[in-house]
Design goal:
Layout lengths: L11 H16 L4 H19 L8 H18 L5 H4 L3 H30 L3 H22 L3
Helix pairs in contact: 2-3, 3-5, 5-6
The structure holds protoporphyrin IX containing FE.
Length: 146
C-alpha cells in the first residue's frame, strides 16, 4: 500500500510563526500592576451589577467584592506605572509619589464603600461606586500610558 509521504519536521515557516507567537505572548504579558487592575475591574463590575438590584441576602458577597477591590488597590500602590518608567528619574520619582497618594486616597474611598455595604446602605454604596469610577478616570488620565 502506498503511504502518503509526510515531512518529518515542521515546515520552517510554521516554526517561525510559533516562535514569534510565543515571543509576542511574553512581550504582551500583563505587568503586576495590570494584573491588579484586571482583578479590580472584575470585582468592580460584579459589584456594580449586584448593586443595581441590591439584595440583603447577597450582602456578604458585596462586601467580599469590595474587599477584593481594596486588596487589589493596596497591592497596586507598590508598583510603578509604565508611564512613570518612561520618564527621567526626577519626574519618575514625583509621579510615583503622586500615584501612591492617589491610590491611598482611593483605598480610603473603598473603605467608605465597605462600611456602607456592611450597613446595608445601598444608595450610599452606589454613590461610592460612582465616586470610585471618577477616581479611576482621573487616575487613568494622569498615570496611564496611552
Ligand atoms: C474601579 C477602579 C479601577 C479599575 C476598575 C481599573 C481598571 C484598570 C484596567 C482594566 C487597566 C488595564 C490593565 C491592562 O492593561 O491589562 C488599568 C490600568 C491602569 N490603571 Fe486602573 N483601574 C481603576 C482605578 C485606578 C486608579 C485609582 C489608578 C491610579 C491612582 C489607576 C491607575 C492605572 C494605571 C497607571 C494603569 C496602567 C498600568 C501600567 O502602567 O502598568 N487605576 N486599570
Amino acid at each position: 500500500m502506498k503511504t502518503a509521504s509526510r515531512p518529518r519536521f515542521a515546515h520552517p515557516a510554521i516554526l517561525l510563526l510559533a516562535l514569534s507567537l510565543a515571543t509576542l505572548s511574553v512581550a504582551s504579558a500583563d505587568s503586576p500592576l495590570e494584573k491588579c487592575m484586571e482583578r479590580m475591574k472584575k470585582a468592580y463590575k460584579a459589584l456594580a451589577l449586584g448593586l443595581e438590584k441590591p439584595q440583603e441576602s447577597n450582602q456578604s458577597t458585596y462586601v467580599s467584592l469590595a474587599e477584593t477591590i481594596k486588596s487589589s488597590a493596596t497591592e497596586s500602590r507598590d508598583f510603578v506605572p509604565k508611564l512613570a518608567e518612561s520618564l527621567p528619574p526626577d519626574q519618575k520619582t514625583a509621579m510615583v509619589k503622586s500615584f501612591r497618594e492617589d491610590m491611598d486616597s482611593f483605598v480610603v474611598s473603598v473603605d467608605g464603600l465597605i462600611q456602607n455595604l456592611k450597613a446595608s446602605k445601598w444608595e450610599e454604596a452606589n454613590k461610592d461606586m460612582a465616586n470610585l469610577k471618577n477616581e479611576m478616570r482621573d487616575g487613568h488620565r494622569e498615570f496611564r500610558k496611552d
